[in-house]
Amino acid sequence: MKIVAIANQKGGVGKTTTAVNLGAALAGLGHRILLVDLDPQANATSSFGLQAIEQTSLYEPLLGEASITERIFPTEREALFIVPADLDLAGAEVEIARMPNHLTRLAETLKPLHADETFDFVFLDCPPSLGILMTNALAAADELLTPIQCEYFALEGLVKIVRLIEKVRNSGVNTQLELNGIVMTMFDGRTNLSEQVVAEVRGHFGERVYETVIPRSVRLSEAPSFGKSILEYAPSGAAAQAYRALAREFIQRHASPATPRESSRTPASENLET
After folding, report:
1. Is the separation of the CB atoms in 210 and 246 below 8 Å?
2. Residue 57 lies in a domain
């Protein structure tokens, strides 16, 4: 099982959109995916047509008052599961900060998933901030995937991400953390700017930048309001095709740890069905 933090301290770059649709595309390839919504705004949760309901988020598990396995819910897409978010997570920022192991609370919370190996990949959809929840995600993750909007300040945001990774490594809570993937989002092929930004980011970060770019798409923006991923909402559109291509590229980069499962039932997944 690989834990992938999907993070960018800047909002509006397609972070949650990537978490939801890459997860859906990977599930479509036969991989079991868990999406953990760590953003109190609960955008990933609502993207699946789910409402933020009290005592369904990671709030109590982070405080040691419940198990994460009790907070895993199925989505309408087979093999894709979610731990929803709610506003209580905003309070967790304050309460976790008072705990002696405040940087590793999420890593401790995720341990039952490691023990059971129900999922191939766990995606941590981080809030657009540099607070406790995002730091915990980076401390718990095997790697970082960063969506970057094709705009002028893209590299400036990446510099901040790289510095944060260095801080997490230097703190000793996760010395293996690496920025292993950069996804260029909101690409507009009609403008020179998008082409220039992609070229500049590739020039600085090389193979860490995915070949697949995600196009700017009205359909992609509309899909969450219908509680669907782009694969259900506009399956033949350019955005859906791009996320399928991104999923294939993602699996190529992670060929060894994940293979499609023949059986969907394992001990921790027995309570995941509705």
Report:
1. yes
2. yes
The confidence score (pLDDT) of residue 93 equals: 82
**Residue 27 pLDDT greater than 60, yes or no:** yes
What residue numbers bound the domain in which 173 lies? Answer: 2-269
How many domains, the chain?
1
pLDDT at 88: 85
The whole-number average pLDDT for the span 128-149 is 92
DSSP string, 134-203: HHHHHHH-SEEEEEEESSTTHHHHHHHHHHHHHHHHHHTS-TT--EEEEEEESB-TTSHHHHHHHHHHHH
Given this model, what pLDDT does residue 269 score? 39
Q: What is the mean pLDDT of residues 33-58?
A: 89
Indicate the DSSP class of residue 70. Answer: G
Report yes or no on 255 lying in a domain.
Answer: yes
In a domain, 274, yes or no: no
CB-based contacts of 255, cutoff 8 Å, min separation 6: none
Under DSSP, the state recorded for 257 is T
Task: Look up the CATH number of the domain holding residue 161.
Answer: 3.40.50.300
pLDDT surpassing 60 at residue 40:
yes
Residues 6+ apart with CB under 8 A from 134: 7, 9, 38, 126, 127
Two tokens, residue 45: 């949760």
Look at 23 and 162; give whichever has higher pLDDT.
23
Name the strands in the sheet holding 179-185, side by side, starting at the edge strand that comes first in the sequence.
Answer: 73-74, 80-83, 33-37, 121-125, 2-6, 143-149, 179-185
In this structure, are residues 113 and 68 in contact, taking their beta carbons and an 8 Å threshold?
A: yes
